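Protein 1 of 2
SEQ + STRUCT:
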Amino acid sequence: MIKMLRQVFIYYDNEIVFQYFFAKAFDKEALEIVLKKRLLSYITNPVEGKILNKSLLDFQTHFVYANGVFFLFVTDMADRPKLIAKEVERASKLFLKNFPDPKKIKEISPEKEEFTIFIKETHYYLHPKITMIGPVGSGKSTIVNILNQEDKSHGHKIMDFAFYYKIKMGNIFFDLWDFIARDDFSPLWNNFTRGSDVIFFIIDGSNFNDEKIKFFINLKRREGKYSNWAIILTHADNQNFVSSSALKERHVYLKDVEIFDINLIDQNVLGNLSMIFTKILGLKESLPQEFRKKLIEANNFVAEEKYTEGIELLRELIGICEIYQEFAYLEVFQNKIKELEEKLQLQLDKKKLEKDMFKAPEKVQFKDFRGVNQLPGDKIGVPKIKKLPVSNLDSIKRKNDPTFSKLDQKNPFFSDLITKKDNSIKEMPPGAPIKDFEIKTHKIAPINIDRLNGTSDSSRIEMKEKFLESSLSNYKSGQTREKKLTLERSPLISKGVRAQTKAEIRKIKPVSSKVEKNPLGDFILQPKVEITPISIEAEKLGEEIRNLGESLSITLCRKFVEQLRIRLNKKSLNDDDINKAARFYVSQRRKRDQSS
């Protein structure tokens, strides 16, 4: 059955604190309807700890309410609820363990990095299945080899009739199955096709065989009733190639099936296959090239303090994000717009203030002049100067006396009267700069998308690998505690020699040029397919650790298994070895968490 997980949401305190998108499902408006109307009663009056599922808007929702947090998984309609419920339970346990305060998930931290990787690899453990069916010579194995680009060493053989490969498209893992037995009517086709999520029917477009085509149509109707499917017509470069419309006319059952023509020797065949897979699987489309250009242009506008233009571009970017369901970037752009609007308002206030400060005075004009009438009997003349009395003249002389001033300065009652204050207006020299009134502002940082997904540093990966190495060494020796090592400087090396050595190292050490980080490093602008080596033992180890409520990435699980084989001196590990290793890792992990 289909096990296609599409979206994950974590809802707390009336807001979405975490979201992850594997494929297209609910857009912004549909999500608002689901959370605010359709599932509102399960949030306001929850059944604590019980995992429920409900079909909404052509998708199936699986949800649980635990410790005030609402976990929502969105899948295809034909998903088996029991399988998804198991993943919902695992995710909720890990989240509540890592985040006692659920809002801390919004901050970049090792706990967020661990939880994000856990959600990303959920598809790995669901094992969604893509099956390639079709007659011998139609091009099934050729398509697999194009996607593989290497050899069958990365595949896992199923008896003598099939191989399956672990492929990664975007952030989603799939099991790609290829039938290698050279028998078009083999009964093994039934078991091979059963349980497929998506079926690709490969047909040689230059060599139709109606009998074989009918056999595979009936196979799909019988074993892949709920599976999505599409037809790929190969050998499109052949002169005898028959069009898709001709095929639909000959087989009425195929009239509503999407058909793609492809040339397997074309230079861009990998890109064409990736686009076909992306469309049929319903994965999110890659962001257009213009998105990168507009984001860089918006950052340039911010750097040049052209905030109006920057806001307009960011609104365009929000529109693109809504079309391509890249909701993780919406909040970043919306917050940046608010920041720019505040900055723009400060800029306008500053310009207005400067304009008012240096405004030229208006001319005052008097239209009417009215004189003062003279009083009768008075004559206009120059006023006479009267002599001061002798007592007042002596007081003025005493104030100008320096001795008198020095004595009275000590008197607190007269000091303010006697102290001379310089209230004169100083004349500025010509060409002196005039200080403007400045408003202190902060510089807005450019948008950096690398921080959105909590991109891990190499130091964190090294720390995980060191912890894994210490766990393995303890596992072999049977110890449960790590030994503390102390480092001491050798007394044979003098301080002068150390200083000299450090100076020589600085001279020899090359200075690497500063590498500018691409602000769109996490965007997959071109379709990309990766083949991942399959390790059954690593998958079992990872799944057992997840069952115990912890997590370890599949990459580190592979390293763990390799080291276990060496330390236990075994070529392969049995289930008991894997279970013991998983329990031991979890116990060591929890001891470390308690001590820290």
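Protein 2 of 2
SEQ + STRUCT:
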Amino acid sequence: MKLTLAAVAAVLICLFSLIARSYAMRAWVEPVLQQRAYAEQERLALAAIDGHLRAKLPRLTKR
């Protein structure tokens, strides 16, 4: 009985350790992914603005 209880406790400790590690890794990676997503959105916005300004450039130079 004591051996079974010790085995169950060891398994629960291992599971708790794995859960804590996965949460820690997710918390560490999430800001990096958000930063990449923000950089991608910024690049797309700048490309759209650049394309819009290039399209208007001939009209602006004719004035």
